[in-house]
Amino acid sequence: xxxxIIGFFVITLLIGASMSVVGNVLISNLLYYDVGxxxxxxxxxxxxxxxxxxxxxxxxxxYGDLTAKFELNFTLERLEGLVPIEIxxxxxxxxxxxxxxxxxxxxxxxxxxxRDTIIGHExxxxxxxxxxxxxxxxxxxxxxxxxxxxxxSEVTSLMLSVWYxxxxxxxxFTSNLEIWASTDxxxxxxxxxxxxxxxxEINPDADEEWIPETxxxxxxxxxxxxxxxxxxxxxxxxxxxxxxxxxxxEGEVNNWDxxxxxxxxxYDLDPDVWIESFFDVYYDFExxxxxxxxxxxxxxxxWIDDNPDNDVYQAVFTVIAxxxxxxxxxxxxxxxxxxxxxxxxxxxxxPDSNDVYFYIEWFQGCPGIYWQGPYPSGEQIQFGYTWENQxxxxxxxxxxxxxEAESETVTLTVTMPRTRTINNPFRxxxxxxxxxxxxxxxxxxx
Length: 446
Prior knowledge:
- The chain has 446 residues and is mainly beta.
- 6% of the residues lie in helices and 51% in strands.
- Among the domains are: 1-31, no CATH class; 84-253, Jelly Rolls (Sandwich); 329-416, Immunoglobulin-like, CATH 2.60.40.
- Strands 5, 7, 9, 10, 12, 15, 17, 19 and 20 form a nine-stranded mixed sheet that branches. Strands 8-11-16-13-14 form a five-stranded antiparallel sheet, with helices on one face. A four-stranded antiparallel sheet has the order 24-23-26-27, with no helix packed on it.
């Protein structure tokens, strides 16, 4: 239950909310709306599944205070490989400067970054800076050109390329071009200096020609909120001008091909109730797959989702051609005595030469060994057990491989017989009267 205090002169009406007034304060007992999809489920990131038929399920639960109406959507995709992607291609052709989402920070005493339309690389436009005329040393530069935010969470093989053009009256630069990255959303010079990454430091040539620079951005792969910054920093003693153009960020992303989609519902789910929803699928090729389960809510007009983060559950897994281990073999005594340890040789051969694990019940309802291993396929492993009770015991053994494929079960019956007591009156008489034994010996010799 959420409690919200609202001022006396402002009243907010919420559908489905109950109100009460205490003194001059209106208290709203807000109802909570939330349906989530996910655990428990039988599919997770990194799982292995097998070619052919399969059934995937997720759990949908109503965490809210009212009955929820929703549909559950499912898509299955197969990875078809990597495709190139162009994340940024900035040539500064648009008159807007800095470009939309970009920023300029000016901390020197000369001109800041600005758009130039005379000396562009492949077009007439570029970004540049230069000294104020006439040059009056010392001329300091600390100029930041900060990009928009980019999501590299699913991009690999990240590369950055940029072209620069430099002119210096003295024939060389004493300033540098630094390329920075911020991975936490920071966009100010302090953000880059405090928590950013210096990717590259270039002492540019002053050859009055366009020169390409490329750099590996792989340290940024997996980050979701990345800003780059081009910082021209240093002190010059004569006139300079410096330009950059055709900034390009490229990489590769997974190409997912949708092979199945299903929907179930609509469902009406009461508060604090959960259901399991199953989707039958078929894998006809080995490879990497992605399953996505998503909720369509609301299917009613007065719904406000208080927690949209749990409306989607996704798992990436691998489908392989795999066979379970063959039925294990077990060799050892079939009769014995309680209190004595007996040993059994157990082995299982896996058709795919995968390592195996063993599950052993020494008698019904007794999981004496729970998936012990792994052991090499076909290797005999010895296990011992001591029975404490007389009677007939059935040993059950099954094997599984490293991908959780289980074999059939093999059994072996072991008997622990009871000790038989012989009731012989003549023997009992001799044991209770030992003096009779010599007399009987003499009589029998007569």
